[in-house]
Design a protein that fits this description.
This is AAA family ATPase. Strands 3-2-4-1-5-6 form a six-stranded parallel beta sheet, with helices on both faces. Helix 2 (42-53) links the parallel strand 2 (32-37) and strand 3 (62-64). It has one domain: Rossmann fold. It is an alpha/beta fold and 213 residues long. The longest helix has 17 residues, at 196-212. It is built from nine helices and six strands; from the N terminus they run E-H-E-H-E-H-E-H-E-H-H-E-H-H-H. The structure holds adenosine-5'-triphosphate and magnesium ion (MG).
Length: 213
């Protein structure tokens, strides 16, 4: 199963989603590899930090790759249960070749105007991916959602998404929680940390992802 996390925007939580899904899949005993196709290399750093700072947790192997990812991903797919791909937050050969080779595309978004404003452009791109890869399952995922009960941001954003049937949402939302930032430099996922709320939302996300496959 090849799962790409992609977006036309930076800072939406792509790498956070990739590494947390990787940690949970490893915890569940799956064979996982992360393909870091973003020159910023956030996920590769996380993998290095994991080896150095959290050696008690199961190793997550990773590779860095630029350009056309197709053959690399297909080759890895024959060996691993899950090939998780992290691409840069812009239109790129890496995102296009990954999305047209993947089984699933996860699209993280913050529930706020800059992320929602690019939806028409991104949905056009998704339609191109689907032309080449009709089996691709695409799901939007709200991340960094405000935790205060009075905020209407998430509800408002969800109603905007209702106008984009090409981008159905995960039922799960990842909320703004310090745990996601705290675990990153340790090379851990929130499922390997003391935040029960963050852990629960990542576990539900991974269960949904497995069910979509
Ligand atoms: N749910 C969350 N709660 C709190 N902080 C978060 C959450 N998700 C991401 N962050 C923080 O937001 C920042 C951006 O996240 P991340 O690096 O995952 O985004 P990205 O889409 O991969 O960015 P880039 O385009 O730069 O690769 C990081 O500092 C990360 O720790
Ligand atoms: Mg990133």
């Amino acid at each position: 199963m090849i799962v790409t996390t992609g977006s036309l925007k930076g800072g939406v939580g792509k790498s956070t989603v990739t590494v947390n899904v990787a940690a949970e899949l490893r915890r569940l005993g799956h064979k996982v590899i992360v393909v870091d196709a973003d020159p910023i290399a956030t996920t590769s750093r996380w993998i290095g930090d994991r080896e150095e700072r959290s050696p008690e947790h199961a190793l997550v192997p990773g590779i860095q790759k630029r350009g056309n990812l197709r053959h690399t991903l297909l080759e890895l797919d024959s060996t691993y249960d899950y090939v998780l791909v992290d691409v840069g937050g812009y239109d790129s050969p890496e995102m296009r070749t990954a999305a047209t080779t993947s089984d699933q595309l996860i699209v993280p978004m913050k529930p706020s105007p800059p992320d929602l404003d690019i939806l028409p452009e991104f949905v056009d791109l998704i339609n191109q991916f689907l032309d080449f890869n009709p089996e691709l399952s695409v799901r939007g995922l709200f991340t960094q959602a405000p935790t205060h009960a009075t905020s209407r941001k998430l509800g408002d954003a969800k109603s905007i998404l209702a106008d984009y049937p090409e981008l159905p949402l995960f039922d799960t939302t990842l909320y703004q929680r310090a745990a996601y930032m705290d675990v990153m430099p340790l090379g851990r996922g929130v499922v390997e940390w003391n935040s029960s709320k963050a852990k629960a939302e990542v576990q539900v996300l991974v269960q949904e992802m497995i069910a979509n496959g």
